[in-house]
Each structure stands twice: as structure tokens, then as C-alpha cells.
Design a protein that fits this description.
Elements (H helix, E strand, L loop, with lengths): L2 H13 L1 H17 L8 H8 L4 H9 L4 E6 L14 H11 L3 E7 L5 H4 L8 H16 L6 E5 L5 H11 L5 E3 L11 H12 L5 H11 L11 H11 L15 H15 L11 H4 L2 H13 L6 H11 L6 H10 L14 H7 L1 H11 L8 E2 L2 E2 L6 E6 L2 E6 L23 E6 L2 E6 L9 E9 L3 H8 L7 E5 L4 H4 L8 H9 L4 E5 L12 E6 L16 E5 L4 E4 L3 H6 L8 H4 L8 H6 L12 H7 L4
Parallel strand pairs: 1-2, 1-3, 3-4, 11-12, 12-13, 13-14
Antiparallel strand pairs: 5-6, 7-8, 9-10, 10-14, 11-15, 15-16
Helix pairs in contact: 1-14, 1-16, 5-12, 7-8, 8-15, 9-10, 9-21, 11-14
């Protein structure tokens, strides 16, 4: 193993001793209690299988056959989740064919940041993750089940399902992807049209046509944002079937992988000799593997929050220092938009997941002594699925990349370190996605231009007030303030300024996530303005410095001057009312900071672990 990666793993294990032991004790107790359908009253059990067919009722009465829960994020408004419409029947039939039973345990919401971008609904986006976790837990709480199949793809859905699934860590759990849409309009062309629209050079018709050609069919968006980062990380953590993450929907191979996932979960239940629950798969080594793969591919910065929360759900404590040190040890070996011009289908064609696994394993960057849904170790994941005479088989992946502009040789990486840096200074701590930047190192020191919401920037841009070297500061966007919406509406105007030759950057307590691109963006700043962070004392004209080489994020104003300044305040009533936002007031008030996962789920557990209750 790479010595830095081993060191980070060891310190996660050490700092998590108490919380991990508590988690393992909890899931062991749940295992020993077992599915309660055997102890249910006749009325309870009758309710549990009332809608089942005659044969399934007999099987569930007998207690000798596995009952698998299906939890799905299906809706037909979102392209990524539309393919799940037919999955329950496919899964049920595949499970019936091997002598077990499946029931649809529950649905969870799936919202799309691409639809809500720049609109009030975006302020529910991050909080929807915890809502999804609770929804999945409610579905499983009937305790009729021996295992679970989780159907989810996009930004908050997979982390939410992981959180919910890990709360039932005694259950074997397999994640079932649906795959990306085929490639459409090249991402570089889409970005060009967006910038031209921001400059007023093309109208809305041209912009809508470009967007429609890019997002054009069922399946996940093809750029390497949070959705595809989710799929890659979950596979590297051993919760997908090998090579199943990026097979296009509507293909015969996709259907056969779906059936195989259903069969696989039945092999892992406590009714077999191969019991393997999700809580024994997601350990410190699996978490580090997921982080390494994310960094090696320049994946979504959303995971600096999601994976912290997921780790906590498994009794593990991960922080941004772990991300930073792993990034320093992990070479960047993919270029997928927004880190390049290729999309996720090009990555698959170049060698895909099997080659990624092989290279990371060969370099000692992944722990191989881990549990997966396919057994012990990651060798199976260096293979890729194929259909031979209609039969699903796995064969060794390609030995080297077919396109080294997309998937590099790990000995000749695009960068010697990963795609993420952690910044710190008197302004607080933030993360910056460096994999897409034009220069490998970002150093910028410029006057601040301060906004208290993202919409005010548009007017300043149109007025020409930003035609200068500057660091744009957008505050009151954090979790506790308004739920931490993504701020990608800022990317096109800032990109235009950059193309004009101005040195520009962004500092915010909000999110930019998986689509963070060429504009340097110090995001997820904590502490946030709403909770008294120093960003609330920045004035326009103050000098701010970002330096990814030293890790500095500095406000160059004297302590004496800062002591005289009042903390900025903002009436957020309009962001707390309407579009359902008032229903989330309680959750918003309990959200932790970005580095703690921006999570509302573990406040009581954290207090218990620390002896406060």
C-alpha cells in the first residue's frame, strides 16, 4: 500500500474506535434479532403480505426463503431515474427465479439540481439527502426483509440511500444503477453556447436547443458531476456489480446486469453461508477506496460533504484533512467534462472502471483486503461484463487505455496529485476543485466584490462592474442559512470574465459541486456567514488571497480593523418560505457545517458518543 494512504486509513480507524464499535454492536444486535416477521402477530404478518400472490404468501409464511426489499427513487420527470419504472418487476422475477421473494418496500424522492438550478427549489436540494435517508429507513422499518436493493443515481439520492441503508447495516444491500444516456451535444460546445448566452450573443432559443441536444434521452447526464461520481464511488466501495455503473439504459447488457444484481443479494442473506451485510462492507478501508477513486478521477466536490456523512452513518469519522492528504498521494488519471472535453461514455470506451481498478490496485492506491458484494478483494472489479451468446459473463478488462487523453496511464498522469485541495486561513476552511483549472496551481490575490445572494451578481456582470481582476464573494448560502444551494448560474459569467483576460475567482459558503469548472472556486466555506463566519465581515475592496500551493485562504485585513466591523446580517425570510421551504425549518436548524457533512441525522448519536447525554 501507498504509505500515505495507509497512514490516513490508520488514523480514521483510530479516531473512529468508539463510534465504529458502537455501530458494529448495533448491527450485530439487529442481526441476532433478525427479521421480525417470524415474531409478528398474525394480524401484523397478514398486513405485510396481503397484496402478495399465493406462492409468495406461502414462502413468507415458511420463514425459509429470503424476502428482499426494493427501495426506489423512480420518477419519470428525471432522465436518470426514468429507467427504474420497469425495474421492480424485473427484480421480482429474477428473485423469484432463484426461489426467493421481493417486495417494493418504498419510494424516495429524487430531485434534480439541473432542473432547480437558480430557483427556490434548489434550496431543498441538499436537505433532500437526509429526507431520502429517512424515507429509506421507513421503508425498511417494517422489518420484513432479509436484504435490500437500492435503486438510485443522482446527486443526493445515492448518498441518502447509503445513509438509510447503513442505518440497517445488518442487511445485505446491493445498489442497482441504471446507466448514463448516450452521448449528445459535446460538452465543450454546450459550454460555449452557455457563455454566449450570458454575453447576450445568442438568444434563449439557441440556448434551449443546445441544452436539449445535450440532455436528450433517458439516463444519467453524461458529464462527470455528482451523479456519475456517485456511481463510480459506490462501485469502488464494492456495492455495485463489477462494471455495472456506466452501461447505457435500454440495452440487453443493462437488463442482464439488473437481473444479476437481484440474484446476488439473495446469495448474501443470513439464510445462506455467505452472509455479508452492508455494515461489514462499508468500513474504513472501503471509505478510503471510495475517496481515492473520487480524487483520481477529479470527481464531485459534493462528496466532501456526502462521504463525511456516509462515513458517520457507518460509525467512521472522516474529515477534510483526510481528503487533502489522500489527494496529495493520488494522481489524477482521467479527463472527463468539466475536467476535459470527454464524457462518461468516452471514459468507458477508453477502458472504464476495470482499467481504473487495475491501475489503482497496481499502484498500491486501493486497499484490496476488503469485503464486497462479490466476495473478498477487488480482483473481480478488474473485469468487465459482457454478453456471450445471451449469457452474462465477466472477462478481464483491457490492459491499457484506448484513449490516453481521457484515461491516462497512471505512470504518466495528468497531474501528480488528485483533483481537490483544502484551503484554510483566517476566512475559515474551504475546498477547491483543481482538476479542471487551466493551470495546475492557482494563485490569485485581488479585491473582493461581495454579494449576499447569487442573483445580484448577474446585474453587476451585465453592468460591467466585474470587468476587472477580482474575487467574487457570495455569502449567506450555507447549510444553516438557506440549505446550501448550488451556484452554477455563476459559472458562465465568471467564465466570460476569465476569457476576457481578467483574473477572477469565487469564494462562497455555498456549493458548486460536480460541475465546478475552469473558474477557481473556494466553496463550502465553513464557518458560514449565517453562523458568524468571517466571510460575514468581508467588504468589497478588501484583498482576498487564494493559493492552492500553500493552501492559503486569507482575508488581508488587520485584526484591529476586523474587530471594529459588525457581522453582516441578512433577512432570509424569503428563502425560508414558499416552494415547501417552510417545511424544512427544523431540519435546516440542525444541519452541521459543511466539513461535518451538512447533516441533520446524527446530532443525538454524536452527543451519545461524546458522553453528552
Amino acid at each position: 500500500m501507498n504509505c500515505i494512504i495507509q497512514e490516513v486509513t490508520d488514523r480514521i480507524i483510530e479516531r473512529s474506535k468508539v463510534s465504529r464499535a458502537s455501530y458494529l454492536a448495533k448491527i450485530d444486535k439487529a442481526r441476532r434479532q433478525g427479521p421480525h416477521r417470524g415474531a409478528l402477530s398474525c394480524g401484523n404478518l397478514a398486513h405485510g403480505f396481503a397484496a402478495c400472490g399465493k406462492d409468495d404468501k406461502a414462502d413468507l409464511r415458511s420463514m425459509t426463503k429470503a424476502n428482499i426489499a426494493i427501495v426506489s427513487s423512480y420518477n419519470d420527470m428525471l432522465s436518470a431515474h426514468q429507467p427504474y419504472e420497469t425495474y421492480p418487476q424485473i427484480l421480482k422475477q429474477a428473485i423469484a427465479d432463484v426461489g426467493s421473494v421481493a417486495q417494493f418496500a418504498g419510494g424516495v424522492p429524487a430531485m434534480c439540481d439541473g432542473v432547480t438550478q437558480g430557483n427556490p427549489g434548489m434550496e431543498l436540494s441538499l436537505m433532500s439527502r437526509d429526507n431520502i435517508a429517512m424515507g429509506a429507513a421507513i421503508g425498511l422499518s417494517h422489518n420484513m426483509f432479509d436484504g435490500a436493493l437500492m435503486l438510485g443515481i443522482c446527486d443526493k439520492i445515492v448518498p441518502g440511500l447509503l445513509l438509510g441503508g447503513l442505518s440497517f447495516g445488518h442487511l445485505p444491500t446491493v445498489f442497482v444503477p441504471a446507466g448514463p444516456m448516450p452521448s449528445g451535444l459535446p460538452n465543450k460546445e454546450k459550454a460555449r453556447v452557455r457563455q454566449e448566452f450570458a454575453q447576450g450573443k445568442v438568444g434563449r432559443d439557441a440556448l434551449l436547443e443546445a441544452e436539449s441536444q445535450s440532455y436528450h434521452s433517458a439516463g444519467t447526464c453524461t458529464f462527470y458531476g455528482t451523479a456519475n461520481s456517485n456511481q463510480l464511488v459506490v462501485e469502488v466501495m464494492g456495492l455495485h456489480l463489477p462494471g455495472s455503473s456506466f452501461v447505457n439504459p435500454g440495452t440487453e447488457l443493462r437488463d442482464e446486469l439488473t437481473k444479476a444484481a437481484a440474484r446476488q443479494v439473495t446469495r448474501l442473506t443470513d439464510l445462506t453461508d455467505n452472509y455479508m451485510p452492508i455494515g461489514h462492507i462499508v468500513d474504513a478501508k472501503a471509505m478510503v477506496n471510495g475517496l481515492v477513486a473520487l480524487l483520481a478521477t477529479g470527481g464531485s466536490t459534493n462528496h466532501t460533504m456526502h462521504l463525511v456523512a456516509v462515513a458517520r452513518a457507518a460509525g467512521l469519522i472522516v474529515n477534510w484533512d483526510d481528503f487533502a492528504d489522500l489527494s496529495n498521494a493520488t494522481p489524477l488519471i482521467t479527463r472527463i467534462y468539466p475536467n476535459g472535453s470527454a464524457d462518461i461514455n468516452h471514459f468507458t470506451a477508453a477502458g472504464g472502471m476495470s482499467l481504473l481498478f487495475k491501475q489503482l490496485l497496481d499502484k498500491g492506491l486501493l486497499h484490496n483486503d476488503v469485503n464486497t458484494i462479490c466476495g473478498f478483494g477487488l480482483e473481480r472489479y478488474t473485469q468487465e461484463p459482457k454478453l456471450k451468446d445471451g449469457e452474462l459473463v465477466w472477462e478481464d478488462g483491457v490492459p491499457e487505455s484506448y484513449d490516453k487523453d481521457v484515461l491516462a496511464d497512471i505512470n504518466q498522469p495528468f497531474k501528480p496529485d488528485g483533483g481537490l485541495s483544502v484551503l484554510g486561513g483566517n476566512l475559515g476552511r474551504a475546498v477547491i476543485k483543481t482538476s479542471a483549472l487551466r493551470e495546475p496551481i492557482c494563485k490569485i490575490k485581488a479585491p473582493a466584490v461581495v454579494f449576499d445572494d447569487q442573483y445580484a451578481l448577474d446585474a453587476a456582470f451585465q453592468a460591467g462592474d466585474l470587468d476587472k481582476d477580482c474575487i467574487v464573494v457570495v455569502r449567506f448560502q450555507g447549510p444553516a442559512a438557506i440549505g446550501m444551494p448550488e451556484l452554477h448560474r455563476l459559472t458562465p459569467p465568471l467564465g466570460v470574465l476569465q476569457d476576457k483576460g481578467f483574473k477572477v475567482a469565487l469564494v462562497t459558503d455555498g456549493r458548486m459541486s460536480g460541475a465546478s469548472g475552469k473558474v477557481p472556486a473556494a466553496i463550502h466555506l465553513t464557518p458560514e456567514a449565517f453562523k458568524g463566519g468571517l466571510i460575514g465581515k468581508v467588504n468589497s475592496g478588501d484583498i482576498v488571497e487564494i493559493d492552492t500551493q500553500t493552501g492559503a485562504l486569507t482575508l488581508h485585513v488587520s485584526d484591529e480593523e476586523l474587530a471594529k466591523r459588525e457581522q453582516a446580517t441578512l433577512d432570509l425570510t424569503d428563502s425560508h418560505q414558499g416552494m415547501g421551504r417552510e417545511l424544512f425549518a427544523g431540519m435546516r436548524s440542525t444541519l452541521t457545517g459543511a466539513e461535518e457533512g451538512a447533516c441533520s441525522l446524527f446530532v443525538e448519536q454524536d452527543n451519545l458518543d461524546q458522553g453528552h447525554l
